[in-house]
Amino acid sequence: MKTIKDLFSMPHQDIRTLVLKQNNYCCQECKATNNSQGYFSESGLWNPCDKFMLNWARQNGYNIVTIHLNVLLSPEFFKSHNSADVRLLCRKHAAVWKNTNRVKLPYAAPEKR
Ligand SMILES: [Zn+2]
Fold this sequence. Notes:
Shape: elongated
Strand content: 15-25%
Number of strands: 6
Bound molecules: zinc ion
Radius of gyration: 16 Å
Largest sheet: 3 strands, antiparallel
Strand order of the largest sheet: 2-1-3
Helix content: 25-40%
Number of helices: 4
Mean pLDDT: 83
């Protein structure tokens, strides 16, 4: 089993997979799961929606989003190698994270075999 300390020797796509698994495919802030659809309430709570709820939410003017989780490494990570400095966040919370000078892991396409 790979650990967070192995990140430096791993292709970026593998890092993403590892971090997704370690966080149960959820945003660390709002617990929204990767590829799920729903809306954020006025108080910022994530509301996942099934097909029926999506129709209801659209009719009531909620902004429906599909969650794409981002893996982010803080500058501290490169010194600490600490999993606390690796974050898995939805776009909304990644934007907040980046505002505090964090860096996004560059995306690399999976290697061709
Ligand atoms: Zn979030």
